[in-house]
Design goal:
The complex is a heterodimer of chains A (about 120) and B (about 300). By secondary structure, chain A is mainly α. Chain A is built from eight helices and no strands. Chain A is about 65% helix and about 0% strand. A seven-stranded parallel β-sheet of chain B has the order 3-2-4-1-5-6-7, sandwiched between helices. With about 300 residues, chain B is an alpha/beta fold. The chains are: A mainly alpha (about 120), B alpha/beta (about 300).
Chain lengths: ~120, ~300
């Protein structure tokens, strides 16, 4: 199974988790997915916010939390989140400031969540 | 001008009826400057949602717009009329909006939307109708007469009316099919869908349009380019539906899914922004269907945009 016949099961697992740790460090999207799968809360760091943060998930909570994640983003990253989450077209974003775009992001994400979330829960 | 009425229909669900409806409406309005009316007869209201958003569909219903309100006027014995129930602006393309703003309308889309309440209202109508010894057939015929009269004044106002039909033969769906000049059949390149096109074709040919082949425009949608899919699509064209008009094959693509998810009721996008990687497929769909319309009506349409 492995190239080292002397390795114990624990050593095999150590190697596996070392690889996983290395991947998680360099891949924030995977890291966020794994943490979510384990039921944990994802803490967003600046560099990874645009790739990891879901405006829909955050729009289900307090607006202040939403703003704390997206409000500090650079304009380019805000536009990326809006586009990748189908919350605004390029035409919609034209001529708007970062603050206006974040407000638009919150309103539209909250609206979609309200429209699409089952009222049974 | 008198509108060609085309029913987008297939007895099988999940074959891309609503998506084809919206792509065709956009393509005809954008490239040929056509005035398009989309009538959504499906209680799932998917094409209405794609054009107006969920919030827009609800707002339309709250304003008394929609097919379920037309049905209510039928049940109340009112004079047939559809115009008051239409949402005049179902445009999502920035180019069309901007041209309109400059008083240079070049292509437009209006919507007679659906709403999930449509099925409840239809059930209520059916219960009442059958309790008076009516049958599904007499109800379909009565609805078709009512709709024909209700839509008559609209025909000179539009180039094409697209009827997005549900994947079953409810009296309302049958009424829609009875009104159609042409039948657009979206299908998927797999064996169960091929069988579904046979069922649809046989039923419509027997009960609605004995001359179906010349009035049938087939679109293979959600196409995954595999050897199997190519073989099924080829068999459809060469064997099973060889006497029909075929539109372009629309690929399965994330661009299609994105294009159908309008960000908000006040969100507009350019044609290229909306359709991205499938822009040329939508253009070819519009071109091929315009050829089909010319063959059916003798009318001609020139492109207003490249």
């Amino acid at each position: 199974m492995g190239e080292g016949p002397g390795l114990t099961p624990v050593e095999y697992l150590d190697r596996f988790f070392d690889e996983l740790r290395a991947e998680v460090r360099s891949n924030p999207v995977l890291a966020a997915r794994l943490v979510k799968a384990l039921g944990g809360n994802v803490v967003f760091e600046d560099a990874a916010k645009a790739d990891v943060a879901s405006p829909y998930a955050l729009a289900t909570g307090p607006k202040a939390n939403f703003m704390s994640v997206f409000g500090a983003m650079k304009l380019g990253d805000i536009k990326k989140v809006l586009k990748e989450n189908n919350l605004a077209s390029r035409v919609d974003m034209n001529g708007k400031s970062a603050a206006q775009l974040v407000e638009m992001m919150y309103e539209r994400a909250a609206m979609k969540v309200q429209e699409r979330k089952s009222s049974m829960f | 001008m008198t509108a060609l009425t085309a029913a987008i229909a297939n007895l099988k669900g999940g074959v891309g009826k609503s998506t084809t409806t919206v792509m065709l409406a956009d393509g005809l309005a954008f490239y040929y400057g056509m005035n398009v009316l989309v009538i959504d007869l499906d209680p799932q209201a998917n094409s209405s949602q794609m054009l107006l958003t969920e919030r827009g569909v609800q707002a339309a219903s709250d304003q008394g717009k929609g097919v379920h309100h037309v049905l209510a006027s039928f049940m109340e014995g009112k004079t047939p009329s559809a115009a008051p129930f239409i949402m005049p602006n179902a445009v999502t393309l920035e180019e069309l909006r901007r041209a309109e703003e400059n008083d240079e309308r070049l292509g437009w889309i209006s919507s007679l939307p659906s709403h999930p309440h449509l099925r409840l209202r239809e059930l209520s109508l059916e219960e009442e109708w059958y309790s008076r010894s009516g049958t599904p057939t007499t109800l379909s015929d009565a609805l078709a007469r009512f709709f024909r009269e209700a839509f008559e004044p609209l025909l000179p106002l539009y180039d094409v009316i697209l009827l997005d039909c549900p994947p079953h033969l409810s009296p309302l769906a049958r009424a829609g099919l009875l009104l159609a000049d042409a039948f657009i059949t979206p299908t998927i390149a797999d064996s169960v869908s091929t069988w579904g096109t046979k069922q649809f074709s046989d039923w419509v040919g027997k009960f609605i349009a004995p001359d179906l082949p010349g009035r049938n425009f087939v679109v293979v949608t959600r196409f995954r380019d595999t050897k199997y899919a190519r073989s099924v699509a080829s068999d459809l064209r060469e064997i099973y539906l060889k006497d029909r008009w075929f539109g372009p094959t629309i690929p399965e693509s994330i661009h299609v899914l994105n294009a159908m998810d309008r960000a908000a009721p006040d969100s507009y996008d350019t044609f290229r922004g909306k359709y991205a990687g499938v822009s040329s497929d939508v253009r070819r769909l519009a071109e091929r269907f315009t050829d089909f319309m010319t063959q059916r009506t003798g009318g001609t349409w020139a492109k207003v945009r490249d």
